[in-house]
Amino acid sequence: MKNLFILSVCLCLSTLAATAQKPEMAKAVVHYKFTHIRDTTAKDKPYTENMVLFLGQTASVYKSYDKKLQDALMRKQIETQMAEQKGNGGPMNIKVTSNKPTTRAEFYQFAAEGKLMRKETLITPYLIVEPIPVINWKISTDTASFGTLHCQKATGHFKGRDYTAWFCPDLPFRAGPWKLNGLPGLIVEAYDTNKEVEFKFDGIEQVVATDKPVVAAAPPQGPGTTVVRFGSMDDDIDPNLIAIPTNAVKTTDKEFANLQAAMKKDPQAFMAAMGGGANMRPGGGAITGSSAFSGDRMVVNVNSGTSGPVNNNPLELPEKK
């Protein structure tokens, strides 16, 4: 079964063609359990999250699986409460609860073009473009198996940390979790020296092509209907499609940091400035709203449930001089 899976993926890759960031279907999906000790004074309480890496012929995207599930749950909460309050005659008051903070950023790698694109969302999707990091990996003869995947060891320094990576030569993807890349095979697992950052392998699956793209049912449109869309909920896109949002605004790290600061300082004013059609009361995540009926008004209370942990140990550390 393992050899059949690897052969199937390799055959898909044999038609490799250089394309300029065109949308493409994923050939495989890798699951990782991400662990990060953000607060060094509470090492027994690391941040954990389920992540996924979609692998295509020329591109890959790494994103939060937990966020996908959480967004779906929050949307369901909104739809249920909208149905219950429909026809009340006054503004809708929606209460939304999410379990925990999740990673909002998505990392796209385009190896043929040497580009790394980070998608962030604050009402509007933003795109921060930079060169794909070049990591000076040293490959050793050590081997290990993760599930049915036979891997080889490599070590390298990146963003202030020394990493050990296990890659699978049988799977000829030069991608990996987060920004890790550049080995002659998929990076199956990786961790830094102190194991403060870990990307643990949690399974791999081949994507089976469908005859039709997966399209979600459109929400009802008409008087009295308000459509609420979460920042990165691309409901009309096949979940296995690797595609940069066509409406994404290119920006820089500095400019995006300024936007985040403005959002944190006054969420209501920020949403109004960005053209959001729904009011939001602070308490957690950000959403966008657009009204299908100009006379409708809705207040959305978002509660993230738990606040994010102290982060005195960022993923990217300054290089020691």
TrEMBL record:
Residues 1-20 form the signal peptide. Keywords: Signal. This is GLPGLI family protein. It holds the Pfam family Porph_ging. It comes from Mucilaginibacter glaciei.
